[in-house]
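SAMPLE LOG
Freezer: B-3
Tube label: C17
Construct: single chain, 458 aa
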Amino acid sequence: MKLSVYTREFKENIKLAYPIILGMLGHTLVGIVDNVMVGRLGAAELAAASLANSFVFVGMSLGIGFSTAITPLVAEADGENSLVKGRSVFHHGLVLCTILGFSLFGLIYLAKPLIYFMGQPREVVDLAKPFLDLVAFSLVPLIIFQGYKQFADGKSETKYAMWANLLCNVVHLFLNIVLIYGVWIFPKMGMLGAAVGTVISRIVMVVYMHFALKSKAKFQPYFEGFSLKAIGKAMSVKIINLGLPSAMQMFFEVALFTGAIWLCGTIGKTSQAANQIALSLATFTFMFVSGLSVAGMVRIGNQKGMGDFIKLRIVARSIFLLAIIVQGSFALMFVLLHTVLPHFFINSDNLKVLQENSEVVKIASNLILIAAVFQLSDGIQVVVLGALRGLQDVKIPMYITFAAYWIIGFPISIYLGLFTSLKAVGVWIGLLSGLTAAAVFLYIRFNNLSKKLIIHNL
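STRUCTURE (predicted):
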């Protein structure tokens, strides 16, 4: 097919994706703002925030990954014009997300003693523990919010989550400023102030999302008839069967990067801080293709509901092409600015930690170069995963991601990071290897599956 067949879809893709991207950037900016502000307190504080967030990111990945099951089911119901089916998915999904949010908080709280057995510096561990308690609790409102968000996304209404995240970030930034540094009547809480700001801002976010959706005529029929007694086994099992493999897919990737944090922590404080800088930047750019992934999931879910598999394949490929363009642009930016970007995360005026910070900048600059290389691999694997979720194909991709990240990627990270002179750079070469393997095998899976669907429906 001509390239124009795919580029014609760009406008619709971007229209659907940009509010999702801005909303996802909102999630990421909460962590980045914490890292920037906490990083100015010192390398130990930045490393502690990184360590605590590594636990929370694992829980967040499971919660967000599980909630993605709601979107293709709602999109399919929308394609079928079925209000009853869409409402059932929404109600069941919201209840399951609420249960999951509290469960993940409880698991992280109970797992907190593991922090002592990870070979991290004692100073970092002592700072991380109280920070972890608060940020872990913020998972409860965050995952409840995801229930609302994924429902709205499935209805192709992506702006509500964008505005909710914008509000969250404004509240979070204000609370960080006044609570970390003790401005006006507020106490000076240091890095704990960032954690308190995260909890409060995420509660504000979910409250806003609830009332924003409920107040709109389009969504009011979906809020009717809600009752815990109406929550049944059939729909719950359907969501769980889609949500659990999707959660594991996201968990495998986030756990890979979490493993990189722990590996860099065993190498040293400066390597861990540098890893967090590079990871923050890579996570920021990842949100753009994650938004495209959700847009693809919605559009492909719609086409599946309508039974148009030729159009489905065109839409998917247009998303893949757009992801390559976006990530290629970020790769170029990383190469050009790899020595400049780390300075935004440290306090260069603090003479007491000048030598330490110089080492952080040097390591982070090299990691950013590797991050530039894996922009394409990371972008392709996430948009193809979105396409497969739109087809409600989640089990085989779960196995593919496990093999790519944990049989290929992480062993390379361990060997090069701990047993060669590459250290943190070696850890990131392992990340690149895992992401590239995932991109290749997931694309093969989608290509074969979409061809079969076309042939079977001729």
